[in-house]
């Protein structure tokens, strides 16, 4: 089975990370995720993520670190989720696909009903929170 590369952004602002909830028109409605999308042909994961965040949220981001990719098999497909840590650098939020967004601190991350593919990313983020957030916050 072909593995589909999919990016996701862990967007930080003021010591919190952004999570978005999948709308009723999406697969896995009501599940929370880090926003992003499929890497297109001839596109780098970084280019994909910046494009997807602009399309989905209408904002600009600056990527500063990658986390470990996580493979997850859904019925009929396997995705490789490529997480990247980023800062929100410009634009006003407008949700084009998701129906809700929330800013979360470390202790709040595990409280959401996450999409299964995002769970390994959530756990890695919790483990690396101090390194990623506290040392990089500007």
TrEMBL record:
Gene3D superfamilies given in the database record: Nucleoside Triphosphate Pyrophosphohydrolase (3.90.79.10)
Taxonomy, superkingdom: Bacteria
CDD domains, per database record: NUDIX_MutT_NudA_like (cd03425)
The enzyme's E.C. designation: 3.6.1.55
A Pfam family: NUDIX
Cofactor(s) required for function per UniProt: Mg(2+)
Domain (Nudix hydrolase): residue spans on this chain: 1-127
Coiled coil ranges: none
Alphabetical keyword list: DNA damage, DNA repair, DNA replication, Hydrolase, Magnesium, Metal-binding, Mutator protein
Catalytic activity: 8-oxo-dGTP + H2O = 8-oxo-dGMP + diphosphate + H(+); 8-oxo-GTP + H2O = 8-oxo-GMP + diphosphate + H(+)
UniProt xrefs under InterPro entries: MutT-like, Nudix_hydrolase, NUDIX_hydrolase-like_dom_sf, NUDIX_hydrolase_dom
Signal peptide range: none
Cited PANTHER family: 8-OXO-DGTP DIPHOSPHATASE, NUDIX HYDROLASE FAMILY PROTEIN
Record-stated family: Belongs to the Nudix hydrolase family.
Protein name: 8-oxo-dGTP diphosphatase
Organism: Algoriphagus taiwanensis
